[in-house]
Design goal:
The chain is α/β, with parallel strands linked by helices. Helices cover about 45% and strands about 20% of the residues. The strands form two sheets. Strands 1, 4, 5, 6, 7, 8, 9 and 10 form an eight-stranded mixed beta sheet that branches. A two-stranded antiparallel sheet has the order 2-3.
């Protein structure tokens, strides 16, 4: 056989192999995309909405990838709930928290869903992120996941003394007695601090009530847990904050029991 024929044969074999591989890849990809469990991700800082910039390859969140919004997550839950091909919803959580309103909104959307819901806590599900997860039917976390941190903070840095040392004078010009409350360039008064603490206590009480209701725990028990601290998976299980110490495979087992068919999680 001549060298030219050998080269042509090699090219034809390569094309055939490529074609077969492409066929199987496309078929496999199609089957994977034919899913019945909607995967929704809650990652990074949790806010009520996210601002986007126009980038060359599409919209880009101003806060980067490490931010989630209740606006988008709630919409995703509602869409999955209306989709007949979707049998259940998986909320993957890896967040230190953020907005309490955002957490409350997501928890409510999960509770309103008429399909099985699971919150899978990865590295952390803390504060408002745990509030969001509490709305799921079933919560799973690793034995080394950080869970809980039921509490509220509005702490901030006071730069007033630094400004004075640098010769910067704060000129207060406002129409209301409490209008500049929380301005980092002025010292907070006793009355202002009491005003902020009033709101913190109200939010804290609502947080505790929601966790008590969502997790079917006595409110006094949640109150004792609500000191702002977090705990690892097994302790969280014993405290009633999660249902199982496990991973994605345990979530699949739960879904299989609930939907009566093989669960295929969307990518």
């Amino acid at each position: 056989m001549s060298n030219n024929k050998k080269i042509l044969l090699a090219v034809l074999v390569s094309l055939l192999v490529f074609g077969v591989a492409k066929f199987f890849y496309e078929e496999t990809d199609f089957e994977i995309s034919d899913c019945n469990i909607e995967r929704i991700k809650l990652r990074g800082y949790l806010s009520t909405y996210v601002l986007y910039n126009n980038a060359s390859d599409g919209l880009e969140a101003t806060g980067g990838d490490d931010v989630s919004s209740s606006e988008e997550i709630v919409k995703a839950i509602e869409m999955a709930n209306k989709d007949d091909s979707i049998k259940a919803i998986l909320l993957e959580v890896d967040s230190f928290g953020g907005s309490g309103v955002a957490g409350q909104d997501i928890a409510e959307a999960l509770k309103r869903a008429n399909k099985p819901t699971v919150a899978l806590i990865k590295e952390s599900g803390l504060s408002a992120a745990y509030w969001a997860a509490s709305g799921a039917d079933y919560i799973i976390a690793s034995n080394i996941s950080d869970v809980g941190s039921i509490g509220v903070t509005m702490s901030y840095l006071d730069y007033s003394q630094k400004d004075k040392d640098e010769g910067i004078i704060y000129q207060e010009l406002s129409s209301g007695k409490f209008k500049n409350t929380g301005d980092p360039d002025k010292s907070i008064s006793y009355e202002e601090k009491e005003l902020i603490m009033r709101d913190i206590k109200i939010i804290h009480e609502n947080f505790v009530k929601d966790i008590s209701k969502n997790r079917n725990l006595e409110i006094d028990k949640v109150g004792k847990l609500a000191d702002g601290s977090s705990m690892l998976g097994q302790m969280a299980k014993e405290a009633g904050l999660i249902d199982k110490v496990g991973n994605i495979y345990d979530a699949e087992d739960y879904f299989a029991q609930k939907i009566g068919e093989e669960p295929i999680i969307c990518q």
